[in-house]
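Last lecture ended with a question: if I hand you only a sequence, what can you say about the shape of the protein? Today we answer it with a concrete record. The protein is ABC transporter ATP-binding protein. Below, first the input exactly as provided, then the predicted structure, then a couple of comments.
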Amino acid sequence: MASEPQPGPPAPLLVLDAVEAGYGRAAMVLRGLTIEVPPGTVVCLVGPNGAGKSTVLKVASGLLKPRSGRVLVDGQDVTGQGPQAMLASGLAHVLQGHSVFREMTVAENVLLGAYTLRDKARIAERAEFVRELFPIVGERWKQLAGLLSGGQQKQVEFARSLMVDPKVVLLDEPSMGLDPKTTATVFEQVVRMRDAGTAVLLVEQNARRALETADLGCVLDLGRVHISGPAPELLADPQLSELYLGGRPAEPSRPRDG
Ligand SMILES: Nc1ncnc2c1ncn2[C@@H]1O[C@H](COP(=O)(O)OP(=O)(O)OP(=O)(O)O)[C@@H](O)[C@H]1O
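The predicted structure:
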């Protein structure tokens, strides 16, 4: 009897396929770059300063048109479309730095993310979902966002980006300006997004910390993906550590004294 065909790996929600992109007349920054982000997966981009990590996010979010290659969101070809169309196709971009409006309440900030939604019941349902996913957002719902700490404000930005129930979230330096403890909290929230099924593409200066959270890593060099693989394997590779992660692999963590 013929055996049932086994289901293959889930189709990626974001695909950058042989993308070439650059700025004006300057030399190309991305030179045939291919990246896939499956559902419920965090992919982290690693590479030296100027390697093109932010440029990848700009192409993926529609801020920069690729000169060639394709961008697919959930199988749909969205190459060359602007940020609005990308959002409509299910892709949200959480920008570098802080983008909360400090003089507005947490609720107002989060609900801004729903401006493309028309159905009030749907908006209420999404608000409930993000308040549960990020409890601090629910607790501080009616307070001014400017009264929240940096890490809490980041969670407001995450909540805002999830209002449209995106299939793909692009995170540009989510820990920028945050202390180590707050950074840890923010990465815990990235895991929550991932566990909710979102495909996350992450760029982070602190590559080692980001790879500890990510499922897969892609090392960029000369405008292409130089090496890719499971994040723990990249972290354990002494040569990669030396070249891209600022030193040798960390010692396995030991319980702290006291
Ligand atoms: N708006 C722009 N106009 C012209 N060149 C740019 C622009 N933005 C980036 N570049 C150039 O593109 C290249 C890649 O920059 P990008 O910001 O993508 O790198 P990165 O890997 O994110 O770097 P970093 O780790 O320093 O943030 C660099 O040589 C940079 O000078």
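Comments.
1. The domain at 14-244 is CATH 3.40.50.300 (Rossmann fold).
2. The chain has one domain: 14-244.
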